[in-house]
Design brief:
GO terms for molecular function: dihydroorotase activity. It is an enzyme of class 3 (hydrolase). Its EC number is 3.5.2.3. This is Dihydroorotase. The protein has a domain of 312 residues: Metal-dependent hydrolases (TIM Barrel). Strands 1, 2, 3, 4, 5, 14, 17, 18 and 19 form a 9-stranded mixed beta sheet that branches. The protein contains 14 helices and 19 strands. The two termini are 35 Å apart. The chain is of the alpha/beta class. Helix 3 links the parallel strand 8 and strand 9.
């Protein structure tokens, strides 16, 4: 359904720290008007009655791995962006560790071309830094690319940046957000060797957070922050997993003025090491899911604004790959379809408000990456909007899981809330579990 003019009536609008009853008029790609009551001006207006539902800005996921090019047996931009739309995520920023890696401007543009043809959601990509591609980094147009991604641990291929001189040069050379994966490789290698000596390759999964330990995370993230403070770089630390790391960040200044920011992912807020017995390698992530105490401290830092963003680190692998013994089972899992429902479940449990969910999943990624005209319900902004029914339970099963890999770490979980409608750039692209045939996705742009 592709009406040029849509009127959403009687919604509970969640935006900028408030919830209010109102109507939203969409003309073309944009939000034209927000008011307590808007009357349709002509018979051509498509009116959607949202009585009893909550209207949220579309979520912006700042960290996904959609596996294209080169790893498309696991996932691709088309399948995973479609799952994202069903989960209320309307924009994504995808990571550079594909095959080939996104470490040249040419390879970056090839990914943009794929997304322009196949993506269901708005898209941008991070550019990957290596020990030897500073010349390529300097060619980037800062208004056309989401940011720079550096692996300071747990990298694939040659993407581990472990030369201190190169690292400092990169930090000094760009005004873009530098997003980092922080785990100390030396610590992990030492811990892994000890466990292989004891167990062989079939290490019990419960030792994953001991191998990829708090020490490994803290050592790496504290060094990255020290370097950012020394060079004045704009640093964003991905997927915090330990309580100790949260003390490295501040809530004393507004996000727009922060030079050093942090993200937490859904799995580190939901699972703990007590879940390894039941879930096994299906909740093997890097950094590892750690203790209940770590999870509690991550929640505390999220709610007091030391942590700025909630993301997914969506990183699918096939079931067969995940069923391997510990040393051969890859880390990562699919999350974009279930991230917002999981956070809404936490709202039902009294852990977080709807306003705070919107702040961390919609507003703050837009502020942090300076995304142009998205992340809010505002007149003149793109109409990326999500309607949610907070009392429409459903259970995650294989048959309603949309990831190409065909599984979810949430399988068997019943969520109370359901995404009923997703609008993308003014078009209704998803309604009551059905997708329209409209491709309205756009390349994200940035105001820098």
């Amino acid at each position: 359904m592709n009406q040029k003019i849509t009127l959403i009536k009687n919604a509970k609008i969640v935006n900028e720290g408030t919830i209010f009853n109102g109507d939203v008029l969409i003309e073309g790609e944009y939000i034209k008007e927000i008011s307590e009551s808007i009357s349709p001006k002509s018979a051509d207006v498509f009116v959607l009655d949202a009585e009893g539902k909550y209207l949220l800005p579309g979520a912006i996921d700042d960290q996904v791995h959609f596996r294209e090019p080169g790893l498309t047996h696991k996932a691709n931009i088309e399948t995973e962006s479609r799952a994202a739309i069903a989960g209320g995520i309307t924009s994504f920023i995808e990571m550079p560790n594909t095959n080939p890696q996104t470490t040249t401007v040419e390879k970056l543009e090839e990914k943009f071309e794929i997304a322009a043809q196949t993506s269901f959601a708005n898209y941008s990509f991070m550019f990957g830094g290596t020990n030897d591609n500073l010349d390529e980094i300097l060619k980037l147009d800062v208004n056309q690319v989401a940011g720079l991604k550096l692996f300071l641990g747990s990298s694939t291929g040659n993407m581990l940046v472990d030369d201190p001189e190169v690292l400092e040069k990169i930090f000094k050379s760009t005004s873009m957000v530098i997003s980092v994966h922080c785990e100390d490789e030396g610590t992990i290698k030492k811990n892994l060797k000890e466990h292989i000596d004891k167990f062989g390759d079939d290490i019990p999964i419960k030792y994953h957070p001991i191998i990829r330990s708090e020490e490994a995370c803290y050592l790496s993230s504290s060094k990255a922050i020290e370097l950012a403070e020394k060079t004045g770089a704009r640093l964003h630390v991905f997927h915090l997993s330990t309580g100790k790391e949260t003390n490295l960040f501040t809530n004393k200044i507004p996000l727009k003025d922060k030079k050093i920011t942090a993200e937490v992912c859904i799995h580190h807020l939901w699972f703990s090491d007590e879940d390894y017995d039941k879930k096994g390698t299906f909740i093997k992530w890097n950094p590892a899911v750690k203790t209940e105490k770590d999870r509690d401290q991550l929640w505390k830092a999220l709610l007091d604004d030391r942590i700025d963003v909630i993301a997914t680190d969506h990183a699918p692998h096939t079931i067969d790959e995940k069923k391997n013994v510990y040393t051969n089972a890859p880390s990562g899992g699919p999350l974009v379809q279930h991230a917002l429902p999981a956070m809404l479940e936490m709202y039902h449990k009294g852990k977080i408000s709807l306003e705070k969910i919107v702040e961390k999943m919609c507003h703050n990624p837009a502020i942090l990456f300076q995304v142009a005209r998205r992340g809010y319900i505002k007149e003149g902004y793109f109409a990326d909007l999500v309607l949610v029914d907070l009392n429409n339970p459903w259970t995650v099963i294989k048959e309603n899981t949309l990831y190409k890999c065909g599984w979810s770490p949430f399988e068997g979980t019943t969520f109370k809330s359901r995404i009923t409608h997703t609008f993308l750039n003014g078009s209704l692209v998803y309604q009551n579990s059905k997708f329209s045939n409209i491709k309205s996705a756009k390349r994200l742009t940035f105001n820098r």
